[in-house]
Amino acid sequence: MAAAASSAPPLLAFLQLLLLLAAFSPATATASRSSNPKAPFPAVTPLHLQALRQQRARAGSSAAKHVAADGASASDGTAAKPFTAHYFPQELDHFTFTPNASMLFHQRYLVNDTFWRRPTGGKGAAGPLFVYTGNEGDIEWFATNTGFMFDIAPKFGALLVFIEHRFYGESKPFGNDSYNSAKTLGYLTSTQALADFAILIRSLKHNLSAEDAPVVVFGGSYGGMLASWFRLKYPHVAIGALASSAPILQFDYITPWSSFYDAVSQDYKSESLNCFSVIKATWDVLDERGANDKGLLELSKLFKACKTVKYSYSIRNWLWTAFTYTAMVDYPTPANFLENLPAYPVKEMCKIIDGYPANTDILEKAFAAASLYYNYTGNLTCNPIEDEDDPHGLGGWQWQACTEMIMPMTISNESMFPPSNFSYDDRSDECLQSWGVRPRPHWITTEYGGYKIDKVLKRFGSNIIFSNGMRDPWSRGGVLKNISSSIIALVTEKGAHHLDLRSATKGDPDWVIEQRRQEVEIIQGWIDQYHQDMAEI
C-alpha cells in the first residue's frame, strides 16, 4: 500500500493490520473427515465460491504457501489441511429489521473433529468446543497456523472450530462488490461479527446434539480482542476466553499514544545502541537522496527494487514494515508465518548492522538488515517495493480502521522513527475523503469498556486469560495485571506477538512452556467448574 506524504506515521493505517497477525507455527494435526457420515456439517461449497477457488487456482495465489499444513499429503500431492471447510447461512444484519437485514450470505467456518469426544446419549459428557474468533483475514491462514489449539485438543477431547470474520476471505456478503462503498461496508462491524459467532456456535451445537458442551473462545491480536469481548457480551455462549496479545486498551486516552513505537524502538535499543542509532538516522538520509529522479534511480539499485521506485516514501514504508514486523514477531524459535525468519530476528538484524564498518553507507546497513525480513532464504532476486499485494485478503481492515477501530498512535522524539502526531480531526477528514463516512472514535470504549477496566471487570467479569509478551509492541495496549482470581494476565518478559498460540516446538524456552501449561490448567478449571455446575442443576 503506497503511503502519501504526511506528518502521520507512514504505515499507520497499514500497521493496524498487524492486529491480524496470529503468528503461530503450522498445526501438526492431520486432516480428518467426520467419523460420522451424518455429522451436521454442510459440506457443499456455494457455487460462487467454487468459481472463486477455481480462479485462485488458475492464478496460482501467492497466499498458497500460508495454507499448507504439516501432515500427510493429499492424493494430488499437496499437503493435507487439518480441517474441513463448511458454510453457514448467516443473516446480514442482526440488529435491525430493515428489508436487507434478513439477506443471507455464506459464512465459512473450519472444523477439526479428530479428537472430539462426541455426546453419547447420557453416557458421557460431550467434549468442549474450542472456537477461534476469526481476525480480519482469510480464516485458513489463521487456522493452519494456530498450533496451540491443535496441540491441546487431544487432552480435552475438543472439537475445533475456526469461524471466518464477515467481509474477509470467502465470507463476503456482497461477493466482489463487498468493498464497493459504505452502503455495503456498513455491515462490517465488530458487533455484527460477534453476533455472527454467537449464532453460528448455537446452531452448530444444536445440530451436533451437543447443546450442553462448554465453549471456550480463542483469539490472537484483533481476534484476541474479539474473544475477550465475546466472553463479556455472550457469557451464556462461551464459558471462557483466551485473548492473546489483545490490545483492548489501545483506544481513546487509556494507553499513551507513543507506546507502540516506543516499544518497537526499545526492542532494538536493548540489542544494540548502535543498531538503534543507525535505524534512527536512516530516514533523513533516505528523504534527502530520494528528492529527485536521479536519487530514486540510485535508491532503486541499492535496494534491488524490481522496478524503479517513484517515491522515496515507498522505500521508507518498506523499511518501516520490516523493522516493525520483526519486532512484533521476535520469537525465540525460527518462524515462517509472515516471512521466513530465524530465532530472535531483532538480535540478528542488529548483528547485521553492527557487523559493518562505521563508515559504511547508512542505507546499505538498513537495506541489509531489512533483507533479513524479506529475503532470509535468499530466494528473492529483486524486491517488489511498490507492488501492491494482499495475499491474505485484509482489505476490509482499512474500513474498520476508519470507522470504529480508531487506535491513536504518535511517535516521540525518543523513538527510532521520525516524530509525528495524531489528530482525531485529521483522521476524521481522511476517512471522510476515503470512504464518505466519519469515524466514531470513542465507540469501542462505549460498547466494550476500557476505562478503569480493573474496577469494572472485577465486579462482573470472569474467565478470561489475557496473555502478552513484552517484546510485542502491542502489549502496551493490553491487560498486564490480574484483575480478579478468574481474569488473569499471563505476561512474559521475552514473549512476542501471541507467541503462546504458536504450536509447541522442541526449541521452545521453558518460560513459553510454562505459560502454555498455565493456560491449559486454567481452561481445565473452567471446564471442570462448568460440569460441576451442570451436575448440580
Task: Give the structure's gist in a few sentences.
The protein has 537 residues and is an alpha/beta fold. Helices cover 38% and strands 9% of the residues. Strands 1-2-4-3-5-6-7-8 form an eight-stranded mixed sheet, with helices on both faces.
Task: Give the strand content.
Answer: 5-15%
**Lateral strand order in the biggest sheet:** 1-2-4-3-5-6-7-8
SSE ordering: HHEEEHHEHHEHEHHHHHHHHHHEEH
Instruction: Tell me roughly what share of residues is in helical segments.
Output: 25-40%
In angstroms, what is the radius of gyration? 23 Å
Keywords: Glycoprotein, Hydrolase, Protease, Signal
Family: Belongs to the peptidase S28 family.
Signal peptide: 1-29
Protein name: Lysosomal Pro-X carboxypeptidase
Overview of the structural elements:
This protein has 18 helices and eight strands. It has helices at residues 12-15, 47-59, 139-144, 147-156, 182-185, 190-207, 222-233, 259-271, 273-289, 293-302, 312-328, 345-354, 362-375, 396-400, 424-435, 443-448, 453-460, 510-536; strands at residues 84-91, 104-112, 129-133, 159-163, 215-220, 240-244, 464-469, 487-492. Strand 5, helix 7 (222-233) and strand 6 form a beta-alpha-beta unit. Helix 8 packs across helix 11, helix 9 (273-289) packs antiparallel against helix 11 (312-328) and helix 9 packs across helix 13 (362-375). The protein is globular, with a radius of gyration of 23 Å. The model is unreliable at 1-78 (pLDDT under 50). GO terms for molecular function: dipeptidyl-peptidase activity; serine-type exopeptidase activity.
